[in-house]
Amino acid sequence: MVVLNKIYTRTGDSGTTALGNGDRVAKYNARVEAYGTSDELNCFVGVARLEATGETDAALSRIQNDLFDLGADLCRPDMAADKDAEYPPLRLASAQVDRLEAEIDVMNTSLDPLRSFILPGGTALAAHLHVCRTVARRAERLAVLLAEQEEINPAAVKYLNRLSDWFFVAARMSNNGGKDDVLWVPGANR
Questions:
Q1: Structure pTM?
Q2: CATH number at residue 111
Q3: Position 177 in a domain
Q4: pLDDT of 5-37, one tens digit each?
Q5: How far is residue 35's CA from residue 76's CA, in Å, rounded to a whole number?
Q6: 88 φ, ψ to 5°?
Q7: Rounded CA separation 146/157 (Å)
Q8: Which pLDDT belongs to residue 190?
Q9: Would you say residue 78 lies in a domain?
Q10: β-strands 118-119, 182-183: how paired?
Q11: Which of 4, 65, 126, 158 could lock onto 122 through a cystine, CB 3.0 to 4.6 A?
């Protein structure tokens, strides 16, 4: 259980922050960048939920919870120490990736194949989901960069990769099942 009695601690005033294992690192550390961007993504998902209803809203709620799991995973270095930890660290599970894939497959069955790239937009929800897609891609790039420097849970990178695909397909679904997608017309304004 998390208990936050005091929001400010002043411990970060020198430009450092604590990781999940208590180590202090610079606030621009690659690990902090990765989990900070997943937190940013979670905020954009919250904005998208203002436009979502029904199953889309329920799915976005699950994704928000997953993104907190992802942040908990990424903020905890030294996976080798997991087995000796007093409290086992929360790590993203492959089942969370599998769930995204299954949801993508279900959504995609009702969409016509794309014959052009699409421009971000259409409905308000689709536009918000495209923002989520691009922030998920940035979070993925930062997680990959972190993985080049330190060991991280491979499911974290896979999750972010699938999540950006999920947002793309969900945006199409939010555009009247893809019928109102805004198509790119190469060189249209030459």
A1: 0.93
A2: 1.20.1200.10
A3: yes
A4: 777 878 788 888 888 888 898 899 999 999 999
A5: 10
A6: -60, 125
A7: 10
A8: 94
A9: yes
A10: antiparallel
A11: 126
Please say whether the beta carbons of 45 and 129 come within 8 A. Answer: no
Please count the structural domains in the chain. Answer: 1
Q: Is residue 87 part of a domain?
A: yes
The answer to whether position 121 is within a domain reads yes
Domain carrying residue 38 = 16-183
Query: Is 144 exposed, middle or buried, given 0-12, 13-18 or 19+ CB atoms closer than 10 A?
Result: middle
Backbone angles phi, psi at 94, to 5 degrees: -60, -25
pLDDT of residue 97: 98
